[in-house]
Amino acid sequence: MRRLLRSAVWVLLAGGVACAYYNGLYNANRLAGDARKAEAEGRTGEARSLWNQAAVKAESVATRYTDSKWRDDALLLWGVGLKHSGSCRRAMTPLRIAVDSSADPEMRNRARVELGDCMVSEGQLDSAVVHLTPAVAQDDERLAMRARLLRGRAELRLGNYDEAIADLERAEPDTAAFDLASAYLASGRTDQAMRVLEARAPGPYDEAGWLAVLGTLGSVDRRSASELVDRLAPRQDLTPGERARLFLGDARRMVAAQDLETATQRFALAHAAAPDSTAGIAAQAEMALADLMHSADVSRMPELVAQMETAQRGGPEAWGEIQPYLRPLRVAAAVVSQPLVDPGGALLFGAAEFVRDSMVSAQLAAAMFWRVYEDHPESFIAPKALLAAADVDWERADSAMVLLDALYADSPYRLVLTGGGAAEFQLAEDSLRILIAAGLMTVETRGGVILEADEEELRRDRRQ
After folding, report:
1. Do 336 and 299 meet the contact criterion of CB atoms below 8 Å apart?
2. CA separation for the pair 98, 111 (Å, rounded)
3. In the chain, which stretches have pLDDT less than 70?
4. Is 187 in a helix, a strand, or coil?
């Protein structure tokens, strides 16, 4: 009787353990299903939370019931849950265990693909290729295509473009299109890249994919990138912000290519698409900067700098592109609107040097150097401004040198060109630094348009 009672107790306990195990795995899978639904409906934050909960449940099952035949399922779900919740580095541990310990080839391949995905995300590219290769050759074509996609991405980032193309050409076309186009572009096959992108254009809009590949394409074929932007922008499924970001990226590529007139037009389209969005506000500010760089009209500086400053209400994302330029241009604008704060032209000269060294507009820098000479011809800085203008304004370089010889023959800035006046030259340079520092303090006191950080930054620029 006692033996029968003991056996019954063990049966009940075993049944309870099994019930707890199945309940745990069932709950983990239910949470994973809810997470997939949330992802499909665009509820990204909720999906990440649900995936994390699924991972916690699956981890509990996998670590408590190590002898169960369903442990591999729990390990895989644990890793997938962590991956989708944004913890790929942590996900690799259970996924590696599943790859190494599972007796089921299909389960091992599924774990390999998930592990390879995380390795690509974490930059472990050689290891990703090794782990994904067995999965590429397995019978499940859907899983094999995904493995080829991921291995192709790893090969692309490794610079193995032929191997990447071989994989990506056999992956799912819509999913692999951006990576395949990037691989073609990297190997110099622009026409093939364009065919891939043109075929992908009618498909579901993937903003991250399009913005990235348009940036790559624009670096080698700016015209083709712009044509694709014009094809994508009228789509009815784009939000105003997405449309604005397309035009904004294109405008920035025009600035990089010094096509400032076209850049201004594209910035205008970006602003018109979503004027109150971060991208629209950034476009308005960068349009003013491009306009200033293109027109080289120093008298318009106060007006255009005021437009640039509107970007600050959009936060760092809206004014990040213009932030390095706004401070010295703000100083120059203050000088143009309040000439008395810069009697010798030192501040305008310092701002012009920054424009020359940090921006793509030699025209604007030249106009500012000429403005120093024109507004302050009696200043000891005027001959230095003429030399600087000659260096960036080749069309008027001869005129600048004629003026230098005729009006400033005794200037240390002219004498040093022939090996003389070294001591006087150093004294002039020291005086210029003092004038810049004093001028910045005056501008700050009168107009509140420059901060102490700006003063130190411009001083550092002059020293360099």
Report:
1. yes
2. 6
3. 1-22, 340, 360, 439-464
4. coil
